TrEMBL record:
Protein name (database record): Uncharacterized protein
Lineage of source species: Bacteria, Pseudomonadati, Pseudomonadota, Betaproteobacteria, Neisseriales
Organism: Conchiformibius steedae
């Protein structure tokens, strides 16, 4: 199911700016709980409204922290795909 969602250009830009401000790469950011929650909030804002109705931000952030090892690689791949699309 997670493969169905793309990271749009706006959210990609927000994540990139956050990482630059924190002077972190994605791996480091995902291992820092506070930054992980910020990235989750940015991605959550880019999800379809129907999905946000079913899952609260708090629940999404909890999932994001628990599954960070899997999600780090997935997000990196999605960010690369967004970069290639322009």
């Amino acid at each position: 199911m997670i493969n169905q969602f793309e990271i749009n250009g706006y959210v990609k830009r927000q994540i990139t700016e956050l990482l630059e401000q924190r002077q972190m790469d994605l791996n480091t950011a995902m291992e820092d709980e506070a930054v992980n929650r910020e990235i989750a909030a940015l991605l959550y804002g880019g999800l379809p409204a129907m999905l946000r109705k079913f899952y609260s931000l708090n629940k999404f952030q909890g999932f994001f922290w628990e599954k960070r090892a899997f999600l780090t690689e997935h997000i990196a791949n999605r960010l690369d795909a967004a970069l290639k699309r322009g």
